[in-house]
Amino acid sequence: MLEMKNISKVYRTEHVETHALSELTVTVEAGSFVAVMGPSGCGKTTFLNTAGLLDTFDTGTYHLDGQDVSKLKDREMSRIRNEKIGFIFQTFNLIPDLNVFDNVDVPLRYRGMPAGARRQAIQESLDIVGLSSRLKHLPSQLSGGQQQRVAIARALAGTPRLILADEPTGNLDSAMANDIMDLLEKINETGTTVIMVTHDPELANRAHRQIHLLDGRQIDLEMDEPVPLAGDRAATVGE
Ligand SMILES: Nc1ncnc2c1ncn2[C@@H]1O[C@H](COP(=O)(O)OP(=O)(O)OP(=O)(O)O)[C@@H](O)[C@H]1O
Ligand SMILES: [Mg+2]
Fold it and tell me: What is the pTM of this model?
C-alpha cells in the first residue's frame, strides 16, 4: 500500500534546521493495521502528513498504492488524497458551525459527488460509527468520543483505501479510546489499511505491527542496543 524509501524532510526556519525525517524507509502492506510509536518530536506526525500527501519531502521516493507520488503537482496530490485517504486527528477537527451530517459531507462535496449519492454515503458511514440518530447535532453538543466517531465517519464516507490517524484517542478517556480502537479494527477488517500514531502501548499491541521512530528514522527495538561481540564484551570486563 505504502512504500517509502530514504525519505528525508528538513524544516528550515530563520535560525534552525530540524531534520524531521532522516532517510526513513517504511513499507506498509495493503490491508494491515500498523501502529506508529516514538517519543515526542521524533517525526510521527511528519511521517503521517507525508504519507497522506498533506506535506512534501526533500529527498527519497514514495509509492502509494503502486503509484510513484514523489513528484506530483499540488492538484494531483489533492486529488489522490481526496480519493484514497481518510484522516483522523487527535483534536477531531470538525467544523463547529456545521452539524454532524454536514461535517461528514465536506469531503464528498469537494469530490463533486451528486447529492443523492452523498446522502447515502453519509448515512452509511454514520451507521457504522453508531451516530445515525445525531445528524442535526453540532459538534459542541456531542461528547469527545462521539465527535471522534463523526470524524471517523467523515474519513470513511469517501471509502478510502488508507486511513491515517494521528493519536485519535489522545483526547479521550480509556473507555472511549477502546471504543474508537474497536471501530478502527472493524474498519480495517473490511480491507482498509490503517496507520495509527499512538502513545498508548496497549492500543499499539492490538495493531498487526508496530513501527518505532526515533529522530526521524525507523528503529528496530530489539536492535536498539547494539549487542557487543563476544570479544568486545571480554575486552570491556574490568574497565
Ligand atoms: N512546521 C514546522 N516547522 C519547523 N519544525 C517543525 C514543523 N513541524 C514539525 N517540526 C519539527 O519536526 C520534528 C518532528 O515533529 P513531529 O510533529 O513530526 O513530531 P511527533 O513525533 O509527531 O511529536 P508529538 O508526539 O509531540 O506529536 C520536531 O522536532 C518538530 O519540532
Ligand atoms: Mg505528532
Answer: 0.89
Distance CA 148, CA 85 (A): 17
Class of domain 2-224: alpha beta
For ligand 1, is residue 46 a contact (CB within 6 Å)? yes
Q: Which residues of 20-45 are buried (b: 16+ CB within 10 A; e: fewer)?
A: bbeebebebeeebbbbbbbeeebbbb
Q: Which residue has the cell 514514495?
A: 62
Q: What is the pLDDT of residues 210-224, one digit of tens each?
A: 999 999 999 987 665
- H or E segment and range at residue 2: strand 2-12
Q: Could you tell me the pLDDT band of residue 111, with boundaries at 50, 70 and 90?
A: confident
Query: What is the rounded distance in angstroms from the CA atom of residue 177 to the CA atom of residue 113?
Result: 32
Ligand 1 within 6 A of 21 CB?
Answer: no
The CA 44 to ligand 2 mean position distance, Å, reads 5
How many Å apart are CA 204 and CA 210, to the nearest integer? Answer: 7
Instruction: State the Cα–Cα distance between residues 118 and 210, nearest whole angstrom.
Output: 35
Residue with cell 502513545: 199
Give dist(CA 86, CA 130) in Å, integer. Answer: 18
pLDDT tens, position by position, 66-81 = 999 998 999 999 999 9
Judge residue 230's burial from the number of C-beta atoms within 10 Å of its C-beta, 0-12 exposed, 13-18 middle, 19 or more buried.
exposed
